[in-house]
Design goal:
The protein is α/β, with parallel strands linked by helices and 323 residues long. The chain has ten helices and twelve strands. It has a single domain, classed as NADP-dependent oxidoreductase domain (TIM Barrel).
């Protein structure tokens, strides 16, 4: 029943004027990257998310080789609500075939994405995982190309995404002010890795909207563990497994604890969680509501932090060596 859920908190996204729900819908699972998801489940998950107050949906042509965009498009269309009621981000530059941050490719990319999403515009177009390209090309060629797409009304705002945190300062220090509106960082604000904290003052000083993704560390902080392709070290995987087992023994859920940890920092405008079922949507929204009402389970959190202490802030390599 919709009435049993208060609306999720809305938070300002930098100086975009957008207000994103604290929990955002990460649509990579709709591309079946964490296991097969039927079209019926994908559409139902999007519907339930919107019904419970999630207004932000993130995808990419890379997720499931365009499948995620198609599934999200079907889900959004089935909502049958005015376009202004939800916020959509997609990405460019990363594809199943590889990386291409050229102006020509990203300009073509948005039209392909809009067709798959069945939309006239997206709210945010991100350069996807820029550490795999030349950051100087991103500064000098990709961002100016995206600026033209913004002027053409195909995207309202521009973002950059990637794993190493230094990519953000490198690019933001070199582009004209106001040409990048948001950043999307992942796996750096969860119980096992909170290094995004150090970058928050810099991003706030530039009024950049902050999107943090993967509060469950791409499956590390779940009962069933990460997918096979997960890049974490065996040491990190087993520490997270031990933390999950500890929670289970206490009758607690590691995923709920992990999401609540990420949601607690209000400088982060929205926390993108990957969701593939109505059940996960309901659990995650309930976790946010429980946090707002009762606060965090500090006792279990400190026990889990102690278990993860030996691997705290351990990450993995991503991208090419920048010259
Ligand atoms: P995540 O940490 O959100 O974990 C997703 C996994 O957790 C999936 O297997 C999902 O089914 C599962 N899950 C979700 N809710 C659960 C619950 N209540 N209980 C148990 N399991 C649950 O990782 P993610 O999906 O990689 O990240 C979230 C989103 O952020 C992505 O879908 C994508 O939209 C975005 N993202 C972007 C980038 C990038 O731009 N480079 C990188 C990572 C993620």
């Amino acid at each position: 029943m919709a009435a049993s859920y208060p609306k999720l908190q809305l938070r300002k996204l930098g100086n975009t004027g957008l207000k994103t729900s604290s929990v955002g819908f990460g649509a990579s699972p709709l591309g079946s990257v964490f296991g097969l998801v039927s079209e019926e489940d994908a559409v139902a998950s999007v519907r339930e998310a919107f019904r419970l107050g999630i207004n932000f949906f993130d995808t990419s042509p890379y997720y499931g080789g365009t499948l995620s965009e198609k599934m999200l498009g079907k889900g959004l269309k089935a909502l049958d609500v005015p376009r202004s009621e939800y916020i959509v981000s997609t990405k460019c530059g990363r594809y199943a075939e590889g990386f291409d941050f050229s102006a020509e490719r990203v300009t073509r990319s948005i039209d392909e994405s809009l067709a798959r999403l069945q939309l006239d515009y997206v709210d945010i177009l991100h350069c996807h995982d820029i550490e795999f390209g030349s950051l100087d090309q991103v500064v000098n060629e990709t961002i100016p190309a995206l600026q033209k797409l913004k002027e053409a009304g195909k995207t309202r705002f521009i973002g950059i995404t990637g794993l190493p945190l230094e990519i953000f300062t490198y690019v933001l220090d070199r582009v004209p002010p106001g040409s990048i509106d948001v950043i999307l960082s992942y796996c750096h604000y969860s119980i096992n890795d909170s290094t995004l904290l150090d970058l928050l003052p810099y991003l706030k000083s530039k009024e950049i909207g902050i999107i943090s993704a993967s509060p469950l560390a791409m499956g590390l902080l779940t009962d069933y563990g990460p997918p096979e392709w997960h890049p974490a070290s065996p040491e990190l995987k087993s520490a997270c497994q031990a933390a999950a087992a500890h929670c289970k023994k206490k009758g607690k859920h590691i995923s709920k604890l992990a999401l609540q940890y990420s949601l607690s920092n209000k400088d982060i405008s929205t926390v993108l969680v990957g969701m593939n079922s109505v059940r996960q949507v309901e659990e995650n929204v309930a976790a946010a509501e429980e946090l707002a009402t009762f606060g965090r389970d500090e006792e279990t959190l400190s026990e889990v932090e102690a278990i993860l202490h030996p691997v705290k802030n351990q990450t993995w390599p991503s991208g090419i060596q920048q010259s």
